[in-house]
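Example 4.3 (complexes with small molecules)
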Amino acid sequence: MASRPPSLRQPWQKPRAETERERLKAMGRAADRNRASARDRGYDAEWYAFRDAVVIERGCRCERCKTLVVLRKREATKRTPVAHVDHIRSVQSAPHLRLDPTNVRVLCKPCHDARTGRDQGFGRTKRNG
Ligand SMILES: [Zn+2]
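Answer. The structure with zinc ion bound is encoded below.
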């Protein structure tokens, strides 16, 4: 059995655009909550499972500075920052490599912040090789 009803609209049914507007209105705050942050978008349960596995497999250490890292932000301390799994080729430029272990690096938060800033063009003047 098909999971979706046929697309033919009956005369008494509203045009799709109007129905969609009403649906979004009804969702109200829920929709806004789902749109909470850019970081949350595109990072699903599959990503988090993959991310945790990568961090553990690589010994819970930053691949740049070798600092011990933890999986959860709430477990992080000054000496053991939270792990960030960084895409070497961005998800935007290579979506098929999103869950490819060869396309990610485990970084501590400070190293990840430094890299992200550089990639986005911030602090470029401070880069000396
Ligand atoms: Zn580091």
